[in-house]
Amino acid sequence: MSGQVTGHGGRKTLSTWAAASLVVMSAAAAVAAAIVMAARQPDLAAPAGHRPAGIPPAISAGTVTLMRLSSAPAGTAPSFTLTDQDDRRLSLAGLRGKAVVLEFMDSRCTDVCPLVSREFIDAYRDLGGAQDRVVFVAVNVNQRYNQVADVLAYSRAHQLTAIPDWHFLTGPAAVLRAVWREYDIAVTADRRAGALAHTATVYFITPGGTERYTATPVATHTGGAASLPSGQISGWGQGIAQVAEATLG
């Protein structure tokens, strides 16, 4: 298993526009992650009813608020090459011609990532006739469980293999960390509990390879477990489908 990343000198401007959402698996990890993210990114989520510049009218204000949707500054998405759950080498540049929904997931997560997985499945179904023009991609944030078998097990457990164009990408730890840096993904670990916390920004990339929009998942944590009302999961699925279609235009 191997991989590589083609950088663009870091993403220093991201903290001025993208709100951070943390996937939290333990209280200790949450505290560590919150400290990291507070230093990196302010919470710039749009208030209810406010439409950030660059969001098309076809996307409702409710969807914008639910997804904490923002326009990305113009620029080519940093390229990388990693290996997916079927042991296929895949580059971001090789996906040109289709819209890409890009997320960062923990291959061992039992918390928020499974909720996002359900949203992706709903989004694929909601795309209808546009299904074959959109690719769903996740990059592994767990450098301890970074084998093809790990991302395959997660994909099967959460039924993501039902999406024909689904790719859960992984690679050597050093290459994964380079991809995280390029996309400003903070990953923290509680070594005692073995839990991870990470930024959960979703990127929408045009068929030409340009970042167009970002969204930030949010979930409610109760007693260490993450949950969302089924209506919100469905709403996120519909929202992802709408934004992905807007990214095609």
Total beta strand runs: 14
Distance between the terminal alpha carbons, to the nearest Å?
A: 35 Å
Order of helices and strands: EEHHEEEEHEHEHEEEEEEH
Identify the CATH architecture: 3-Layer(aba) Sandwich
CATH topology: Glutaredoxin
CATH homology superfamily: Glutaredoxin
Structural class: alpha+beta
Average pLDDT metric: 80
Write down the CATH class. Alpha Beta
Assign a percent range to the helix content.
25-40%
- How does the major sheet shape up? 6 strands, mixed
The total count of helices amounts to 6
Strand order of the largest sheet: 3-12-11-6-7-8
**Radius of gyration using CA atoms only:** 16 Å
3D shape: globular
What are the defining features of this structure?
three-stranded antiparallel beta sheet, six-stranded mixed beta sheet, 249 residues, Glutaredoxin, 6 helices, single chain, alpha+beta
Architecture overview:
The chain has helices spanning 27-40, 61-67, 113-126, 148-157, 173-182, 230-248, and strands spanning 4-6, 22-24, 70-71, 79-83, 89-91, 99-105, 134-140, 166-169, 187-190, 195-199, 202-205, 211-215, 220-222, 225-227. The chain has a single domain, classed as Glutaredoxin (3-Layer(aba) Sandwich), CATH 3.40.30. The chain is 30% helix and 23% strand. With 249 residues, the chain is an alpha+beta fold. Helix 2 crosses helix 6 and helix 3 (113-126) packs across helix 6 (230-248). The model is unreliable at 8-46 and 219-225 (pLDDT under 50). A 6-stranded mixed beta sheet has the order 3-12-11-6-7-8, sandwiched between helices. Strands 1-4-5 form a 3-stranded antiparallel beta sheet, with helices on one face. It is globular.
